[in-house]
Amino acid sequence: MAYVALSEAEKTFILHGVEEDFRCDGRSRRDYRPMELETGLVSNASGSARLRLANTDILVGIKTEIDVPDPLTPEFGKLEFFVDCSANATPEFEGRGGSDLAQELVLALENAYESPLAFDYRTLCLIPGQQCWKLYIDILILECGGNLHDAVSLAAKAALHNTKLPQVTASLLDAGVTDLIISDNPYDCTRLTIDTVPLLVTVCKIGDYCLVDPSAEEEACSTVSIVVSVSMRNGEAFLSGSHMTGGGAMHRDTMRNCLNLGLSIGEQLNTLLAKVLKQEEERVGPKRPKTVGFLK
Amino acid sequence: MLRVTQTKNALLDGATIAEDLYTTPKDCEEGFESLELPGKNPKKLSPRSTFLRAGVLTTVRGSAYMEYGNTKVMAIVAPPHEMMRATARRMNMGVINCFVNFAAFATGELESVPEREKHLGSMLSKALEPVVCRTEFLNFQLDIRVLILDDDGCLLSTAINCCGVALVECGISTYDLVTASTACIYRDNVFLNPTAKEEELLRKHRGGHALAGSENSSSTSTGAPQEHGLITTASMDTFDQLAQCQQCGYLSPGTYVKLLDYTLAINKSLRQIIRRVLTARIKEQHELDVREKAESALEDQRLAEIIERLGRQGLDEFIQSTIKEDPFVKR
């Protein structure tokens, strides 16, 4: 990702910090950096969210469209991801430099959201076999400070929670094709349930220890990391996708440790995100905060 | 109206040639019924019948051809060359680029081919990065091209195996031999080395039955969800290292580890096959070298003889003695 120049001494310093469970900024191996989350800031999108994870800044916008469902899965809607690594994030993303990273993120997200047990596609169905919602999830990377997978999935999940699908009523069945009437009322909408929607957790291996939420410097020190997609269902954590990245290899037992760490962290992240989103929803009327968002 | 009948080709181990395997959910159900269900715990953890040959092309230095059951894959590796893109040169290790191409006749479903090619390419480079000694070709890039001639499932793992052999054939330093295999679970049945039919059921139907099944059961029961998923593992077995472990679907951690162990066991048997193939190739190459040396020694000897005769007889006599009479000219 972002290119950070580190000397051998700096790398050794980071390595020793990780061994003693006290990283450069004082975190333990299981701690995340402070996050700021805001939803509903883009007025033209059906749903939006902005997440700031220390130096990483992600903006997600969701657009909706009516489409024909796949004949093999007539009751399922569709999701399409698009990631744009803008040149603002780091100079390497200039021109076509960011396209590889963007492709990798899209594949990771598509893999995580593929299973209907992770994201209930039936909520996107309008008329089985004929019409369904298609959501275009556009992710914009504004600043790259390490740990992109986690930030992108958190922002996407928050944006999905914020998405308001307009209420649709069907009018007469005209020669087999139904005419749909979409409500104009902005408050007449349905929301998506995001309980089982997965979150990506990057578990990074530095030296002999695994840690989560690596900063850009820590990413430069690690040999291998595993990205795990954790989805909660009935209080249990499930894996909805995983792959290794980083250019190194790991032992089978190390992998099991990383997996367990990723699952427990993913579980906590899911619970916390749900809590925070609920808190944000309740801040209406007199409890509404003064303008905080950078786009307002 | 033109009707196309599905033909059963006796050469292909009972696989049928079909255009679009599943077009309706009912087809998926029928397809599932027609499969031989291996059950929850498969007994035999062995790879499919494999044919593997290193060194099949004369145009590139490293090439390999692999047939894994009905899946046919060819890989070529050229020696590293200088990197084109200036921005990527800041890396402290060599860069690996993988390009995967499907032959036009490789698979029935042509719409998803470009996407699958991209996906396979990126997964393949992720899998091969830990295997190759990238510190040996700093600021250079290594291009690996894979051609898929027939798709009958397990494409990623077959491609990894084939590329591993092609890398050794090309002479590129690797840390260890890499082997890969695939396992999947669908409706409580574990399929090892899934065929295209099984993979497509998993991919196309996407466990759609999982939700339908839970609707049929009573609404209050909150039983375990129908797990479904596919896992591909590439490992380097000398020190039990995993080069890549890719999973898709929806699995509980217990099932994940179970499938992981199955693939690691298959990898161990595949490793024996690869070692045999590479040793046979080295022996064959050695014999070719010996033969070539013998032939060149013979040539050297002949030339030495001619030079010696020339020295002895002098130029004119030598020319006279080497001219043979034309048998068709009458004297």
UniProtKB/TrEMBL annotation, chain A:
Main subcellular location of this protein, as a coarse class: cytoplasm
Subcellular location: Cytoplasm; Nucleus, Nucleolus
A UniProt-annotated Pfam family: RNase_PH_C
Entry-linked InterPro entries: ExoRNase_PH_dom1, ExoRNase_PH_dom2, ExoRNase_PH_dom2_sf, Exosome_comp_Rrp42_subfam, PNPase/RNase_PH_dom_sf, Ribosomal_Su5_D2-typ_SF
Residues of the Exoribonuclease phosphorolytic domain: 32-166, 197-264
Superkingdom of this protein's organism: Eukaryota
Keywords: Cytoplasm, Exonuclease, Exosome, Hydrolase, Nuclease
GO BP annotations, alphabetical order: exonucleolytic trimming to generate mature 3'-end of 5.8S rRNA from tricistronic rRNA transcript (SSU-rRNA, 5.8S rRNA, LSU-rRNA); nuclear mRNA surveillance; nuclear polyadenylation-dependent rRNA catabolic process; rRNA catabolic process; TRAMP-dependent tRNA surveillance pathway; U1 snRNA 3'-end processing; U4 snRNA 3'-end processing; U5 snRNA 3'-end processing
GO cellular component, one term: nuclear exosome (RNase complex)
GO molecular function: exonuclease activity; mRNA 3'-UTR AU-rich region binding
Family under the similarity heading: Belongs to the RNase PH family.
Name the UniProt record assigns to this protein: Ribosomal RNA-processing protein 42
Organism per entry: Drosophila pseudoobscura pseudoobscura
Gene coding for it: Rrp42
From TrEMBL, chain B:
GO MF term (any one): RNA binding
Keyword Transport included in the entry's annotation: no
GO cellular component: cytoplasmic exosome (RNase complex); nuclear exosome (RNase complex); nucleolus
Domain Exoribonuclease phosphorolytic: 48-172
Disordered as annotated region, ranges: 207-227
Superkingdom assignment: Eukaryota
Pfam families given in the database record: RNase_PH
One of the GO biological process terms: U4 snRNA 3'-end processing
Protein family per UniProt: Belongs to the RNase PH family.
Full protein name: Exosome complex component MTR3
